[in-house]
Write a structure and sequence with these properties.
It is a single chain. The protein is an alpha+beta fold and 715 residues long. Among the domains are: 184 residues, Lysozyme (Orthogonal Bundle), CATH 1.10.530; 54 residues, Membrane-bound Lytic Murein Transglycosylase D, Chain A; 70 residues, no CATH class; 43 residues, Membrane-bound Lytic Murein Transglycosylase D, Chain A; 44 residues, Membrane-bound Lytic Murein Transglycosylase D, Chain A, CATH 3.10.350. The chain is 33% helix and 10% strand. The strands form 9 sheets. Strands 6-7-8-9 form a 4-stranded antiparallel β-sheet, with helices on both faces. Strand 1 and strand 2 form a beta hairpin. Helix 3 packs across helix 6, helix 4 crosses helix 8 and helix 6 packs across helix 7. The N and C termini lie far apart (79 Å). 36% of the residues are buried. Pfam families: LysM, SLT. Keywords: Signal. This is LysM peptidoglycan-binding domain-containing protein.
């Protein structure tokens, strides 16, 4: 008993200190200096004491604030709203998502239905995003920004949240606009006084616990699933998950009208690991060139042989740097980030310096992509992409442009654009090129321009030696200037870069190689190369060194040869020409076999799509299109491929060998071995992770040693 009394006596000063927080005579809010009169300070003090009087209730709200404030801060930071507005959510709802006022205002920020829908919040019979902390906080931020454009004063904007834009105007003064100081007295509107009381009461209590009892993490909600099913895969209870996700009404499935996220209560670090693993699977589906799981650490992935982490919903530069174990400066440097850049959910962020080359030859720019996004996708420095493609840093990346990711585009090769209506052909550009012995290179020229640091690494691949000799010869011959932004600018490059071609509409040879010069006239100007250039061995899907076009069409000079072929006279159309094997699209110094008269090729042991393409000097993209193959085909022994375009121009699926086709159609049972993951098993059988989960009724992508999975390989 005596010990209990002594304990209480020791705790009394702490409890008294916790209950009473003195209100200062000067407060600062959103850049405004608020001077409190004696009456104003007394009014705020009374409200502070009332908020903190009952400690269990106050501490419960502090715990909620520690969980929700990081999410609200991220939204406000993105929208450009002062962070101090976060205390208003405690005043409005006490951070209770299901809160509802007598005026039918609902949710964390107490929106009425009309105001919510006007601000982009979804409210219907299935979803009420007023109860979604991220969606409603974003709507509140937009409301603050809109009204502040009228008042130019954050205190008056705060008052308008309660009274509306029109109702708050009588309480404002003409001198309030762009003011730096304001006076707060007992006559100030009670809504403002109550807000200041919440700010004073919670400001010193929130964020002080280094190990808060609960964290909240935002996670993509799978379409068609119910919260109870998601709870099991996220290692949390359905009751706790539903408590923070009241926005999904009647425990129904997640709708598919837009991308939704859920708030997951995290009480165990293992939950974050499970979420990261699942997020990696979701993020990998968004990338054609998928990251690979890091065999040494499940928290990381590998892209281009580099270790990276996947950005989860709610991640910031600070949280990613912390997860990576890096200082902010290093993290920003490794990922070419600036202070104003936003984190992209599902994108890999690197924990080590990116390379100067990608694992693939080319990339076709997608709508909305930038060089920075491509840089993160392939683990290549943005500076290297600009250099290899001879792009000024302020040049906008247009959709369809073919970016060179391993070699520097020669000056004689015009900027090329690929059509975006053939997904399989575009995906073929992003396949990794297997290493091939380089063709014998001719003697190097006597004078050689010293390469910059970005190009210090020698080329690898089929164009290795010859392409390096080609670039050295052309760059040494031309005058090179350096622009203020360090982008290389050449005397002849401006002419070739303005002559744009479509890769799928290769021009035919004309009597003279001409290059279109941007000028007031549209007439092509003939140009003669300064000197013969060595012949190269291009990659299977490189542009043709000897294009064939109509005589009237201007063509680019070839990086591999300076010879031109006169265009033949157009022949009269035949009534019904017999199908003929298509001539090779590419010429090469390496030996090329003629296309068989049947137009078919039987896959031999060890042959890949690229090997077949090189054998007949074809593009992998064409083989994929002609044979209706998947984006990343895996050939089978005995499989029959069409190596000539169909006579009617349609794509025809190549007929596989009968025994192989029957074997591929049969479901197989795969026993999970040591070190295997769902990702690796799906890749092994050329199927998706989602298919494997559906075939085996799995709620997540986790596999166990010895588990037997039913697989239905693709034909």
């Amino acid at each position: 008993m005596k010990r209990l009394v002594l304990t209480l006596l020791c705790l009394l000063p702490l409890l008294a200190a916790a209950q009473s927080v003195a209100v200062p005579s000067d407060l600062y809010f959103a850049g405004l200096h608020l001077r409190l009169t004696d009456g104003g300070r007394a009014a705020v003090q009374q409200k502070v004491d009332a908020i903190r009087r009952y400690q269990p209730s106050f501490q419960a709200r502090v715990n909620l604030a520690d969980a929700y404030f990081p999410i609200i801060d991220r939204v406000f930071q993105t929208e450009g709203v002062p962070q101090e507005f976060r205390y208003l959510v405690l005043q409005e709802s006490g951070l209770q998502g299901e809160a509802q006022s007598i005026h039918d205002a609902v949710g964390y920020w107490q929106f009425k239905r009309e105001s919510a829908t006007e601000l982009g919040v979804v409210v219907n019979d299935v979803v009420d995003e007023r109860k979604h902390i991220v969606a409603s906080s974003r709507a509140a931020a937009r409301y603050f920004l809109r009204n502040n454009n009228t008042f130019h004063n954050w205190v008056n904007t705060l008052l308008s949240y309660n009274l509306g834009l029109t109702g708050a105007k009588p309480y404002t003064l003409p001198t309030d606009a762009n003011a730096t100081e304001m006076e707060i007295s007992e006559q100030t509107h009670t809504y403002v006084l109550t807000f200041l009381a919440h700010k004073v009461a919670f400001e010193t209590a929130c964020g002080q616990n280094p190990k808060p009892p609960m964290l909240l993490a935002e996670f993509p909600a799978a379409t068609g699933q119910q919260l109870s099913a998601l709870a099991a895969s996220l290692q949390t209870s359905p009751e706790e998950l539903a408590k923070h996700n009241r926005w999904l009404l009647n425990d129904g499935p997640v709708p598919s009208d837009k991308a939704y996220t859920i708030l997951v209560p995290v009480t165990d670090p293992l939950q974050l690991t499970a979420m990261a693993v699942q997020q990696k699977t979701a993020a990998a589906g968004q990338l054609l060139h998928e990251p690979k799981p890091d065999p040494q650490n499940a928290e990381f992935v590998q892209v281009n042989g580099l270790r990276a982490i996947i950005a989860l919903p709610g991640d910031t530069k600070e949280s990613l740097a912390q997860r990576a174990g890096l200082k902010m400066r290093k993290f920003m440097q490794f990922n070419d980030l600036f202070a104003f850049d936003n984190i992209v959910v599902g994108q890999p962020y690197f924990v080590q310096k990116k390379k100067d080359k990608a694992a693939v030859e080319y990339h076709v720019a997608l709508p909305g992509e930038s060089v920075a996004i491509v840089s993160q996708k392939y683990g290549v420095r943005a500076k290297s992409i600009w250099s290899k493609n001879r792009m000024p840093r302020n040049e906008e990346l247009r959709a369809g442009r073919i970016l060179w990711l391993q070699h520097t585009r020669p000056k004689e090769v015009a900027i090329e654009y690929a059509k975006s209506d053939n997904a399989a052909a575009l995906a073929a550009f992003e396949r990794s090129t297997p290493p091939v012995a380089a063709a014998p290179a001719p003697a190097k020229p006597a004078k050689k321009k010293e390469k910059a640091k970005d190009e210090a690494e020698p080329y690898t691949g089929t164009t290795a030696a010859a392409s390096r000799i080609l670039e050295d010869a052309t760059e040494a011959a031309d005058t090179v200037a350096v622009s203020p932004d360090n982008a290389l600018v050449t005397q002849t490059d401006s002419a070739t870069d303005d002559h744009m071609e479509n890769l799928n509409e290769l021009p035919q040879a004309a009597p003279k190689p001409t290059v279109r010069i941007p000028a007031t006239t549209d007439k092509p100007v003939a140009q003669t190369p300064k000197k013969p250039l060595p012949t190269t061995a291009p990659v299977a899907d490189e542009p043709s060194p000897e294009p064939v076009a109509a005589a009237s069409a201007p063509v680019r000079t070839s990086p591999a040869t300076t010879k031109t072929t006169p265009a033949p006279a157009p022949a009269a159309p035949a009534a019904a020409p017999a199908p003929q094997p298509q001539p090779p699209l590419y010429t090469s110094s390496a030996s090329v076999e003629p296309v068989p008269a049947s137009g078919l090729h039987t896959v031999q042991k060890g042959e890949t799509l690229y090997a077949v393409a090189r054998k007949y000097a074809l593009r992998p993209a064409d083989l994929i299109a002609w044979n209706n193959l998947p984006a990343s085909p895996s050939l089978r022994l005995g499989q029959v491929l069409r190596v000539a375009a169909p006579a009617d121009g349609t794509t025809v699926a190549a007929a596989p060998a009968p025994t192989e086709a029957l074997a591929a159609a049969e479901p197989v049972k795969h026993t999970v071995a040591t070190g295997e993951s769902m990702y690796g098993i799906a890749r092994k059988y050329n199927v998706s992770i989602k298919q494997v989960m559906e075939w085996n009724n799995k709620a997540d992508s986790n596999v166990k040693l010895g588990e037997v999975l039913v697989i239905k390989p693709t034909k």
